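Input/output pair, single chain:
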Amino acid sequence: MGSANGFFSAGEFSLDSKWLVDPKLLFVGPKIGEGAHAKVYEGKYKNQNVAIKIVNRGETPEEIAKREARFAREVAMMSRVRHRNLVKFIGACKEPVMVIVTELLLGGTLRKYLLNMRPRCLDIHVAIGFALDIARAMECLHSHGIIHRDLKPENLILTADHKTVKLADFGLAREESLTEMMTAETGTYRWMAPELYSTVTLRRGEKKHYTHKVDAYSFGIVLWELIHNRLPFEGMSNLQAAYAAAFKNMRPSAENLPEDLALIVTSCWKEDPNQRPNFSQIIQMLLHYISTISAPEPVILPRMFSSENAVLPPESPGTSSLMPPRDDSERNPNTRMEDQPGGFFFCFKQCY
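Output:
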């Protein structure tokens, strides 16, 4: 369905025709991720490798309306913003199912990357580099008046070389308004700012006011996790962590951090949102900190001898484990994905 101005719309869904995905050209491969209401697949669109997010519409009219509105909001925001640290939006369609197509990143989630490294920690330069990537993505969103509300390692994706982090999943993102209150629908408790849930147990549909500073709180928790490579509020359930943060003002320990780094972390998760820095300030603090520590040690490669008995260094155990699984047909350059079973409609029938 189209209109003279080149926009396609259905209910709340409105999309410039240049972003409208033709499902006939969409081919779905292996599943690479799954959330509460959507599954993500590796696939192809117009011969481009992509990530395909298929959103489950739900069962009841209330559920369907809620998910369609959330889908429309996510698509509208992703089509509006561009940044090197935001997963690139390629397009979307609402029929026959709700689909969002983005660039494919093969480095896995930050959550999986950190789990794979434990009990080792990231090099501090790598940790701060990742933190800067995240902060720059958030600065971009906030400059467009968008609150993400679900900043956590599961929504941060690495590039294949594991050198860059990009922010994904705008499912809970909202446009900030000084005059409108917002619903209490939120992200994962462990990383959530206390003001999202702390005053009272919100009744269904009740509104609550909060600002973009909720993302600064979540960033502080993520930064602590990047440095320590431990789960924040270890030993607690998500609800226990939320209760401790909101009602006891408990935070992960910053005692073992260098003073400048501890200041950044603790300022981000202050109880009063107005005392938390914005992301422009966070970026400046991180850049200042990185300038005060010594440069990373140069990597000295093992000396290689031209001998049949020379032993090559082993491949990093993290790299292969984070790549999506591929079967033999995928490795064959002469086999096209669209020639294999698993096209868009086939996958839809299998998955739901």
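The radius of gyration is 22 Å. DSSP finds ten helices and 13 strands in the chain.
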